[in-house]
Design a protein that fits this description.
With 611 residues, the protein is of the alpha+beta class. The protein has a domain at 318-436: Calcium-transporting ATPase, cytoplasmic domain N (3-Layer(aba) Sandwich), CATH 3.40.1110.10. Helix content is 51%, strand content 17%. It has 23 helices and 22 strands. It has a 7-stranded mixed sheet with strand order 10-22-21-20-11-18-19, with helices on both faces. The protein has a 6-stranded antiparallel sheet with strand order 2-1-3-9-4-7, with no helix packed on it. A hairpin with a 3-residue loop joins strand 13 (367-372) and strand 14. The two termini are 27 Å apart. It binds adenosine-5'-diphosphate and magnesium ion (MG). Residues 307, 309-311, 347, 507-509, 512 line the site of magnesium ion. The site of adenosine-5'-diphosphate has 24 residues, from helix 12, helix 14, strand 14, strand 15 and strand 16.
């Protein structure tokens, strides 16, 4: 395709030439009109030839060749009017494509263009306006009415009313109280408030989203490549029909008419427009799909693998009991676990830190931290070696592993399905913290809706213990429950589900990242999940709502349907037109106009994916 910037000029030549030629015709100097028409075709033809040479050197044989051929052939046989009409239609079609793509992209562009550039920061009881890049953690910022929050942080005081619609499609504003978390990218829909930044702008959620959107816009969908492949078949068919027509009728005008009807084909235009429109539609609902490939695969998924903690459960766990195995008090144990877990992004870790803060416990800074994602974390607090994590992990940290088993027998029982975090201090078992981690609301309905969308297998894959996993999903109708998985084993589960068709994996943790990458479509819980999972995934839910995977699949299906429909309708109509032209029912000029009508219809159809 030609450079976007020269496209308006390219339309100008044939448009002006056409008008001037008609004026000359009316005033009786027809030969001059033909010359003008021929000359005004040339800029478009030349730009097109340059483009064809360029794409051929990349190995692409697009339908642009037909456009070039029909203009050249029309000029060669003295059909200058047809040539200039094709030139105008072709240049117009390209312009239309730009317009449609721009239109289709609008939600994503809206996300990008909202990015704030400056912020108001307090310094020595004064306010200063700074670039958003200069925001650092712990800066206190004034967020004025209507402003987009530039960095993640917490509300300093009072009440904030936030509009998250651009991020999540959620139209109702939400309220935050002092100390509440505020995500970057939200709009201040109420009075001005003060925010204490918890991260720099660049490390904040919104900047991450913007980076993802930019990446999404640059990836090329396989369906586009599929269309390219169709295009090649169509090119050959067009040339064959044109050749046969000429051979049989010995009438070059008919042959040119055939070529003209085939120019330029909606194939190349419709698919990218539909895909971008679908991506945009999904973005509007808080589902960031990282490109056409992911969107297309999502339309075809047959199996779903879901992680438990933080994905199926809300990640809103509560501490329900603390059982000591040593002389430590409950608060001391929670303080140790929370201090160490400040270094972890695990969903349960964040809960423990939150609980300790809520109890006003002082937290120490952990050093020499090493974490095995999904298993546990160890490090030093004031020269004491401590470890927090699952039972198996803590057992491996004990000097006497037998201690764990004897504690199991003596300690109070806890409800099935409770998440248990174990704690070790200097190689000795210190105790365990029991958390209730409830399922998100509406899981049963979600599963029913997924089944209705032909998702045949739904499998739970968790790093947590078998009894916990079984208890959590009891009665929900999962097809399989795979527990006590390491990150590698999660990958194996995903791969083993491939038999039926593409697999979607949904997860939130660092331990899910490899499985998300291995799945045909990895979906990360973006709002609260880890950055590693969002990076490995093909799609990110910007809202903390697992059920968004249903509209995601629905949008993907509809987009794919519309794209294919546009392709087949476009090819069908063009073929009918070519046959009509071969039998002499269409002049080259009529053919060019007809083809443009088909293009417009097909592009408008593709834009339906926006709705
Ligand atoms: P899932 O795979 O379902 O998301 P995870 O494997 O992430 O579950 O977590 C399962 C268990 O791992 C938790 O119940 C907890 O005991 C333990 N765990 C792992 N890392 C940590 C950590 N940093 N802090 C506390 N517990 C942890
Ligand atoms: Mg998880």
């Amino acid at each position: 395709m030609s450079d976007v910037s020269i496209r308006p000029f390219l339309i100008g030549f044939p448009a002006a030439g056409l008008v001037l030629g008609f004026v000359l015709c009316v005033s009786g100097s027809e030969p001059w009109a033909d010359l003008i028409w021929a000359i005004s075709t040339l800029p478009v033809l030349l730009a097109l030839l340059v483009e064809i040479v360029r794409s051929m050197s990349r190995g692409d044989f697009g339908l642009d060749i037909v456009a070039a051929l029909s203009m050249t052939a029309a000029l060669a046989i003295g059909q200058e009017l047809a040539a200039v009409v094709v030139a105008l239609m072709y240049a117009g079609g390209q312009y239309l494509e730009d317009f449609a793509e721009g239109h289709a992209r609008r939600e994503m562009t809206a996300l990008l263009s909202r990015a704030p550039r400056t912020a108001m920061r307090y310094r020595d009881l004064q306010l200063e306006e700074i670039d958003v890049d200069q925001i650092a953690a712990d800066d206190r910022l004034l967020i004025r009415q209507g402003e987009v929050v530039p960095a993640d942080g917490t509300l300093w005081s009072g009440l904030a009313v936030l509009d998250l619609s651009a991020l999540t499609g959620e139209s109702l504003p939400v309220q935050r109280k002092a100390g509440g978390a505020v995500l970057s990218g939200a709009t201040n829909a109420g009075e001005a408030f003060d925010l204490v930044a918890s991260r720099s702008s660049e490390q904040s959620t919104y900047a991450g989203i913007v980076r993802l959107v930019e990446a999404a816009q640059h990836s090329k969908a396989p369906m586009v490549r599929l269309a390219d492949r169709y295009a090649f078949v169509f090119l050959v068919a067009t040339l064959a029909i044109a050749g046969i027509t000429w051979f049989w009728t010995q009438d070059p005008v008919r042959m040119v008419a055939v070529l003209v009807v085939a120019t330029p084909c909606p194939l190349i235009l419709a698919v990218p427009v539909a895909i971008v429109a679908g991506l945009s539609r999904a973005a509007h609902q808080g589902i960031l799909i990282k490109g056409g490939k992911a969107l297309e695969t999502m339309a075809r998924i047959r199996s779903l693998v879901v992680d438990k903690t933080g994905t199926l459960t809300g990640g809103k766990a509560r501490v329900v009991a603390i059982h000591a195995a040593s002389t430590l008090t409950d608060d001391e144990m929670l303080g140790i676990a929370a201090s160490l877990d400040q270094a972890s992004k695990h969903a349960i870790a964040q809960t423990l830190v939150g609980e300790a803060r809520a109890r006003g416990l002082p937290l120490a800074i952990p050093t020499e931290v090493t974490e095995i994602p999904g298993e546990g974390i160890r490090g030093k607090l004031h020269d004491r070696t401590v470890a927090v994590g699952g039972r198996r992990y803590i057992k491996s940290q004990l000097v006497e592993p037998g201690q764990a088993a004897s504690f199991d027998i003596s300690a109070p029982q806890h409800a099935p399905g409770a998440v248990v975090v174990w704690l070790a201090c200097e190689g000795k078992l210190a105790g365990r913290i029991v958390l209730a981690d409830e399922l998100r609301a509406g899981i049963e309905e979600l599963l029913a809706r997924l089944r209705a969308l032909d998702v045949e297998r739904i499998v739970l894959a968790t790093g947590d213990r078998r009894d916990v996993a079984d208890a959590v999903v009891a009665g929900l109708g999962f097809d399989a429950v795979r527990a006590e998985l390491t990150p590698d084993q999660k990958v194996m589960v995903v791969l083993s589900e491939r038999k039926l068709g593409p697999v979607m994996m949904v997860g939130d943790g660092v331990n899910d990242a490899p499985a998300l990458a291995a799945a045909d479509v990895g979906v990360a819980m973006g709002a609260k999940g880890t950055a590693a999972s969002a990076e490995a995934a093909d799609a990110v839910l910007l809202v903390d709502a697992l059920d968004r995977i249903v509209p995601a699949i629905e949008i993907a299906r509809r987009t794919r349907f519309i794209a294919l429909e546009s392709v087949y309708a476009g090819i069908g109509l063009s073929t009918l037109g070519m046959i009509a032209a071969a039998f002499g029912y269409l002049t080259p000029v009529e053919g060019a106009v007809l083809q443009e009508a088909i293009d417009v219809a097909v592009i408008l159809n593709a834009l339906r994916a926006l709705r």
